[in-house]
Amino acid sequence: MNIINNIRKTLKSNANEEIKESSKRYFKEKVKVYGTKTAFVSRLAKDSYEKIENLSKKEVFALCETLFQSGYMEESFIACTWANQKIDEFEIKDIEIFEEWVDRYIDNWAKCDTFCNHTIGDYLEKFPLNVKVLKKWAKSDNLWLRRASSVSLILPARRGDFLKDVFEIADILLLDKEDLVQKGYGWMLKEESRKHEKEVFDYIMKNKKVMPRTALRYAIEKMPKNLKALAME
Asked: How many C-beta atoms surround the C-beta of residue 172 within 10 A?
């Protein structure tokens, strides 16, 4: 636990009140932050991991959970970095741990996206059949699990992967009332459109009468002007 204490001392000693206050403007939710620059936190995460890289995945994950439990944004970012460093040791059952972390500790879009884009996204590249878990999350009462169901596919979708699953998740989330969920699945569709523009455009045209405008605008962001105009009619 010395490494956790040292990280907390370092974050406190490098906190800036101005950064702390400005950070809060990006969230509707109440957020808990030290007030340190993102670049500094990223360096701290990498440098501190070098001191624990020989620990087992189980031990690293336990440290990650301790960081998540604090509620501090910066500590959650470090936890995300550390967890992803163990990608070579990921096992199929790890999705149960990841689900628990999202359910218990994720409480804003920044924590959600940082964890899901990389750790869960990389997990799904390794265990693609477990994309089915995301469809369960999409039906959750927990807003952050619903957002996680789409933003976990951002990087795979950017490569053109999981097309069928992207549409199935979008179907489940289509009429979601939460704007952060709408933005999440719209973002997922946007990334999938990089490789599958026609398929995503056809999906949007089929659903545009009921798709929330927030999701629609995100989804068409990378499309040519003529397709955007058709979608927005």
From this structure: 18
Q: Tokens 């995301």 correspond to what residue?
A: 134
At 72, phi and psi to the nearest 5? -75, 135
From the number of C-beta atoms within 10 Å of its C-beta (0-12, 13-18, 19+), residue 117 rates as: buried
The class level of CATH for 102-233 reads mainly alpha
Query: How far apart, in Å, are the Cα atoms of 103 and each of 36, 80, 187?
Result: 26, 15, 21
Model confidence pTM above 0.85: yes
Please, are residues 182 and 212 in contact by the beta-carbon 8 Å criterion?
Answer: yes
Residue-wise pLDDT for 48-79, tens only, equals: 999 999 999 999 999 999 999 999 999 999 99
Q: How many residues does the chain have?
A: 233
Q: Are 93 and 127 in contact (CB under 8 A)?
A: no
CB neighbours of residue 21 within 10 Å: 11
The domains of the chain are located at: 1-89, 102-233
pLDDT digits 0-9 by tens, 76-112: 999 999 999 999 999 999 999 999 999 999 999 999 9
